[in-house]
Amino acid sequence: MLLGSKSNVVCGLDIGASSIKMVKLENKGGNYAVKAMGSRDLPVEAIVSEDIKDRDSIIFNLQSLIEQTDPKTRDVVISISGHGVITDRITIDKKTGAEAEQAILFEAEQRSPFDVEDVTLDYHIIDVNEGTNKMDVLLVAARNEFLKTYLDIIQDAGLKPVVVDTDAFAILNSYEINYELDPERVTALVNIGYDITNVTFLKDGKYHSTRDISSGGRMIFDAIQKEFRLNQELTHKAIRGEMEASIDQDMLKATIVTSIEEMITGLEVAFSYFKSLANVPNIDWIILSGGGALIPYLPEFVQSKLNIPIEIANPLRNIEYDPDMFSQIQPEKIAPLLSVAIGLAARKVR
Ligand SMILES: Nc1ncnc2c1ncn2[C@@H]1O[C@H](COP(=O)(O)OP(=O)(O)OP(=O)(O)O)[C@@H](O)[C@H]1O
Ligand SMILES: [Mg+2]
Fold it and tell me: The domain 9-85+140-216+260-345: what is its CATH number?
């Protein structure tokens, strides 16, 4: 959804349940360079299952993040995901221009699970088949009420949202600018967040479909907090591998592995649904991003349970940056957290 403005420096803002991530990228003829970046942890109760519980704290953290990274920032590209957004793939007769738009919107109105009055619709033509004279179109319907809550927060923080994308497309965009799409391998881009895991499937080197699973790092956080009787701050530390000396690592591993069962089931269901929809026997590999990719023992465990090779995404792979911007941390260590923000910042803002 394009809401105006034009620039070759774009600020991507990823407001997640666990933290806000900001990345500003300059587009130099298709080559990207990081101009600013930063993140702020949110209190664990500020956003719960996509519901905004503490908007003041989000606004405060947004303002302080912008103030400390690049105070001149005004225009931002944001994303939404989860239950406020529905994506659907349709095949219609090939058309162009206004005629295509009319046909797509007509189809969308027939299909949208929300009332058309209550949603903002957008679409993207994925593929045109000259042989059959058909085209595949991706429909995106965002619930207005859901969208407005986010837009109001951004505006109240003194920022101007110029594009609204979805997390899943931001992940895809971030993958496309950093890796060659392999037409031979069926790929699942899996972004494990705090409350949501976004899955995007690629087939024949192209986008196929996407699915959001309502499960993520919160389950692990809660399980560790309970098991080791830690406060929030120490629980964060334990997950970040900063408590190796003070907590039993075997017990930590057991706690993590047990608490992600539900997420794994969610992935299995999403994968088998995709396999029958796309008529493919296997998913060849998983590209893992989001904070979940950094949780100790998680990638190995998911890989062994699903029996699919996993590679951790590096969304900075093809991007120029000054390592000093990342202060004490090695950029590649936290890069998977930035997948959505990078994908948003690499959006064309016409
Ligand atoms: N450095 C780190 N090491 C290990 N785990 C981490 C690290 N940073 C974040 N995490 C974990 O990653 C998860 C959060 O991931 P992420 O930041 O991608 O979620 P989010 O975008 O805030 O949430 P959502 O997308 O669900 O709204 C949390 O469970 C957190 O504990
Ligand atoms: Mg996220």
Answer: 3.30.420.40
**What digits encode the pLDDT tens for the residues 44-61?**
999 998 889 999 999 999
How many Å lie between the centroid of ligand 2 and the Cα of residue 4?
A: 24
Which ligand lies nearest the alpha carbon of 19? 1
Query: Closest Cα to residue 195, out of 160, 220, 227?
Result: 220
Please state, in angstroms and as integers, the Cα–Cα distance from residue 292 to each residue in 177, 192, 219, following that order.
22, 5, 11
- Report whether residue 84 contacts ligand 1, using a CB cutoff of 6 Å: no
**Tokens of residue 70, six digits:** 């690049």
Q: Is the pLDDT of residue 187 over 50?
A: yes
Q: Is this prediction's pTM over 0.90?
A: yes
Name the residue at shortest CA distance from atom 8 of ligand 1.
Answer: 291
What are the residue ranges spanned by the domains of the chain? Answer: 9-85+140-216+260-345, 86-139, 219-257
Residue type, 41: D
Ligand 2 (single-atom ion) residues, CB below 5 Å: 16, 193
Establish how many alpha carbons lie within 13 A of residue 283's alpha carbon, considering only the half-sphere containing its beta carbon. Answer: 30
Give the mutation target among 80, 174, 239 for probing the ligand 1 site: most ligand atoms within 8 A of CB. 239
**Topology alike, domains 9-85+140-216+260-345 and 86-139:** no
- Residues with Cβ within 8 Å of 175's Cβ and at least 6 positions away in sequence, in order, are 181, 189, 287, 313, 315, 339, 343
Residue nearest to atom 15 of ligand 1 (CA): 291
Locate the ligand 1 atom nearest the alpha carbon of residue 17 and give its number: 27
CATH class, range 86-139: alpha beta
Q: 98-150: per-residue pLDDT in tens?
A: 999 899 888 888 887 777 788 888 888 888 999 999 999 989 889 999 999 99
- Supply the residue whose CA is at minimum distance from atom 19 of ligand 1: 193
